[in-house]
Structure formats: C-alpha cells, structure tokens
Amino acid sequence: QVCAQLCRRPCYCPWVPPRCPRGSPLVLDGCGCCKICARRLGEPCDFLHVCDQSQGLVCDYSSASAGTGGTCNFEDDEEGCEVNGRVYRDGEVFQPSCKIQCHCLDGGFNCIPLCQEDVRLPTPDCPYPRRVEIPGKCCPEWICEAQDQHLLRDARAVSALLPYPCQEWGTEWSACSATCGLGFATRVSNQNRYCRLETQRRLCMVTPCPALPAAFPAVS
C-alpha cells in the first residue's frame, strides 16, 4: 500500500545523479526507481530516503511520532563509530591513515600510531642523523646527513635565528642515577638554540646519604 501511494510509474529521475557527501554511496530509493544518496547514521529517513544498508543501518521509527520519518540506526542497536563520514561497527579495527590504527569501542574509538617514534642519537658512523619524509613511504625514516650539509644547515639556522617554528619535543627526565646524595638525570630534547635533538643532564638528589657511624677507640 505504501509503495502504491508514494511510487510513481514509470520512473522519472533526474538526468544527472546527485553528488553525495563522502561516505554516503548512491543507492536506489525505497521505490527501486531513482538513485539517491544513502542516509548515514543519525540522519532522518523514511520509506523513500533509505539508510546505508552496507553499513548495517535501517530506518528506526521507535522514537518517531505518528506520520513522521525515522532516524538511521544500526539494525541490532549496536553502537558504532563514525569517522570521516564512514561508520564502523563496535569492535571493528580500521585505519583512517597509514600512520594510525583505530579500534571502535562503545561508540568511541582508540588509536595507536603505526610509525615508530624512536630517537636516533649521533654515533661515529652516523654523526648527524636526521628524520625525513621518504616519497612513497608512509613513515618518516632516519638518514645520515653529510657533515658539510649539516654545517651549512647550522650556519643558515644561526644567521636566520631559526625562521621556522621549532616544535618542542623531549622525553621525560630519567630516574636519578644515585639513590642518595648527588646524582644526575638525563633526557633527550630539542629545546636548544639549534632545535636539534641532544642528550641533556641535570643534577638531582633523591635524599641525603646517611652519615657514616663514628669510629670508637678500642677499649684496652
């Protein structure tokens, strides 16, 4: 009955199909007549304007008043995540980019980096390491810069007083090297005039060392 009331035969559809937002595919309307943009999670829907079934969505009329449309929701009321216009099911693992991997959980999502954030310190065989983006590769890699290039870059940095913004980066200070008395803690940081990673040290003292017991003279 609904189909007979809303669906006209023959079909009259626009020559040019609609341009859909990202994550909304072209599908046939409820009459199986014209192509429309599928409705996404939380968007209004009705008999004609159908939800994206490829994402497991159906038109939910449970909270709608009589005579009005519904809202696109998961068929089994399962919570999901919407990222960049795409809906992921609860428990699904996905990668919004090659650098991170995410896990949809209870309506939210947690992400972990896939690129290692390691720190390479200068060594005799690589005195001037530098991290660069490699064409065709997702994660940046460390390269060993030649000494003359390194000195030239330093000279430019000093003469121009770092014209580019230096994004501060550093590890946490390590534990004190001594359990009592003076020791030192270390960290790796670029908070210096050249914005270059270096190992830094500072003095520390957890607690004063206890006094040595006094030597008593031998009793004859």
Automatic annotation (TrEMBL):
Query: GO molecular function of the protein, one example?
Result: integrin binding
GO CC list: extracellular matrix; extracellular space; nucleus
Record-annotated IGFBP N-terminal domain positions: 1-75
Q: Which UniProt keywords apply?
A: Cell adhesion, Disulfide bond, Secreted, Signal
Q: Name one GO biological process term.
A: cell adhesion
In which domain of life is the source organism classified?
A: Eukaryota
Q: What residues does the VWFC domain cover?
A: 79-145
Q: Which family does it belong to?
A: Belongs to the CCN family.
Quote the function comment for this protein: May play an important role in modulating bone turnover. Promotes the adhesion of osteoblast cells and inhibits the binding of fibrinogen to integrin receptors. In addition, inhibits osteocalcin production.
Name it: CCN family member 5
Source organism: Nicator chloris
For this protein's source organism, the top of the classification is: Eukaryota, Metazoa, Chordata, Craniata, Vertebrata
